[in-house]
Structures are given as C-alpha cells and as structure tokens.
Design a protein that fits this description.
5 strands, binds tryptophanyl-5'AMP, two-stranded parallel ribbon, about 325 residues, 13 helices, single chain, mainly alpha
Length: about 325
C-alpha cells in the first residue's frame, strides 16, 4: 500500500479564531484528516513577533486547541501540538536563517503590512517570521500545506529555502506544495470587503469569531457592506461584498454559486444577508457546544498537548539530526 502523504499547517494564537481561518484553513484540515498524516500546530512563537499579553497568549493557546478539536480534528488521528513545546522548530529556524536572503524576506507582503501596522516594533522576529514557518513545515517532511491565500507567498519561500539547502547537501527536505481552497481562500472583512477578515482587526462588526453569539453574528451580517445594486451575483470585481457573502454561504451550505444565484433571483440583499447569517449560526452552533464541553475538561486538553508534543518531537528530531549530520557532519 502506498504510504500516506504528510500535511502540516498552523495558526497563531494571537487573537480569537475567525470565520476566515475556519473557512480558509481548518475546514480543509478536517476534510484531509483521514487521507494524510497530519500535523497541526498552535504556533505560539509566531504570536510573539508583536507585543502580547503573556496570560492571554496562554489562555488562547488552550482555547485554540479546544476549538481545533471542536471543529472536528481528532487528536488520535492528527498530531496536534504547540510549536514551542517542540524545540526543534527554533533550532531549525536558526539554521535556515543562514540559507535565507535578506532580499527574499524584504519582499514578503506580510512583513511589509505588519511593519506598517507595528511601526514602533519592527523587530528581527517579524522579519524572519517566514523562516520559522519554513522550519515548521520542513521538519515534518511535509507534502502539502493547507492555508489561505495570504500564506501562499510564505510557502513558496519555504520551497525556495528547501531547494537551496538540498542543492548544497542532498535530499534533506521534502519540497512542500501549498494547498489553497478553491472557494474561501480569502474571506473578507464584512465592513470592508476589500480587506481580509483578520483576527488582529476584530472591530466594528467586520470580523466574525468562531465563538461569537448568534445574535452578534446575525447583526454583523445584517450590517455587512454590499453595493448599490440588488442582484445576488458572483462578481468579485464589481460586487466584492456580495461575492464575499456568497463564498461564506457556499461553504456553509455546500451550494454552488449558480445555485445561490438561482435561490436569490428576484430577492433583495436583505433576504440574502439574513440567510448567510443564519447559515453561519447553524455552522457554528455544534462547534460552540463541543467547545464548551471540552473547555470544562482542562486535564484532557493538557494531555492532548503532552502527547502531541511527544509525537511531533519524534519526527522533528529525525529531520534535525539529518540537518546536523549533513551540514556539520556531527551527531
Ligand atoms: P494565521 O494565524 O494568520 O492564519 C491561519 C490560517 O487561516 C488562514 N486565514 C484565512 N483564510 C481565508 N480568509 C481569511 N480571511 C483568513 N484569515 C486567515 C491563513 O491563510 C492561514 O492558513 N504564518 C501563519 C501560521 C503558520 C503556518 C505555519 C501556516 C506558522 N507556521 C506553517 C502553515 C504552515 C499565519 O500567520 O496564519
């Protein structure tokens, strides 16, 4: 039998998880769980590249684990762990820093955005953030990296770094591919459909978090910014707001864009927004119930972390040993 391929992905515990992260990443992770060896990390070391509250980071790390499981990731089938529990990530990141060019990192869109937003704290970690991400991915000899559209550039850089390293030392790393969903790769802010829904901008109803109350979700969709027309039609250029809502509705209901256009032909935007809100509430309700149940059992969650770290370390250490022996002839 052919060996299962490997998947790695991660999310920063830097804010409450959003509908964007769920649709762009976690939902795909759940679908892929049976067919691949999966590693899903809570990447807390990436979260400290901006100033943070340590207690909140710790709390969110546990909450994020409960949410991963509540979304349908079974910790028996998937290795779920915290990045900082596996020191190999930091060690490989240092080595890869020495194989990554200043010019490459300067071109990263996320670095440019973040350094504008955090102009008073453009630290070296923010700059080398994609190298730690490359270490995350390469440690597990990953085939596929399921992410939203905004992380594609980082996965491409990971491939370049791995190819450069392999070019010098032989086949140390598997070359990974990004895996981006066809629908929902970039869910936009409901108040500003030209800007990505982001956990760092959880304000004024533009962002839906997975644990939001149903009434808040319905209100946010009711107030979502659309356009001056009245036709529910998929056209991201002319109708970015409606097209974003159509993506969310398509993912929540499994309907195609054509089916949605037919369903709302002759109806106004009001009916459509209400339906998207209700579909989102229905999607999140079971997930929230499971989350509440899991959060009442912290001992279980801590056990999952301990087991995840052990399973992840065993694989990561093998790759790291290979790196040490090829690059320095030690070990
Ligand atoms: P992060 O934490 O910003 O986002 C987590 C995942 O959610 C996706 N995503 C979205 N998808 C669609 N629409 C949106 N509005 C939206 N917002 C977020 C992201 O594309 C991502 O897949 N650097 C990464 C975390 C990371 C990582 C890794 C990912 C660290 N190491 C290794 C993959 C592999 C990040 O900041 O994602």
């Amino acid at each position: 039998m052919e060996e299962k391929k490997t998947i790695f992905s991660g999310i920063k515990p830097s804010g409450d998880l959003t509908l964007g992260s769920y649709i762009g990443a976690i939902k795909k992770w759940v679908e892929l769980a049976d067919s691949y060896n999966c590693y899903y990390a809570i990447v807390d070391m990436h979260a400290i590249t901006v100033r943070h509250d340590p207690a909140a980071l710790r709390r969110r790390t546990l909450e994020q684990l409960a949410l991963y499981i509540a979304c349908g990731l079974d910790p028996k089938k998937n290795v779920i762990f915290v990045q900082s529990h596996v020191p190999a990530h930091a060690e490989l990141a240092w080595v890869l820093n020495c194989y990554t060019m200043f010019g490459e990192l300067s071109r990263m869109t996320q670095f440019k955005d973040k350094s504008q937003k955090h102009a008073d704290n453009i630290n070296a970690g923010l700059f080398t953030y994609p190298v730690l991400m490359a270490a995350d991915i390469l440690l597990y000899q990953t085939d596929l990296v399921p992410v939203g559209d905004d992380q594609k550039q980082h996965v491409e850089l990971t491939r370049d770094i791995a190819e450069r390293f392999n070019g010098i030392y032989g086949d140390v790393f598997k070359i990974p591919e990004p895996y981006i969903p066809k629908v929902g790769a970039r869910i936009m802010n409901l108040q500003n459909p030209l800007s990505k829904m982001s956990k760092s901008e959880q304000d004024a109803g533009g962002c839906i978090c997975l644990l939001d109350k149903p009434e808040d979700i319905l209100r946010a969709f009711k107030r979502a910014v659309t356009d001056s027309g009245s036709e529910v039609r998929y056209d991201p250029q002319e109708k970015p707001g409606i097209s974003n809502l159509m993506q969310i509705y398509a993912v929540c209901t499994g309907k195609s864009f054509e089916e949605i256009e037919r369903e709302f032909a002759g109806k106004g935007y009001g009916d459509f927004k209400m339906a998207v809100g209700e579909a989102t509430v229905a999607l999140l309700r079971p997930l929230q119930e499971e989350y509440n149940r899991l959060m009442a059992d912290k001992a279980y969650l801590e056990d999952v972390f301990a087991e995840g770290a052990q399973r992840a370390s065993a694989v990561a250490e093998k790759t790291l040993a290979k790196v040490r022996s090829e690059e320095r002839r030690v070990g």
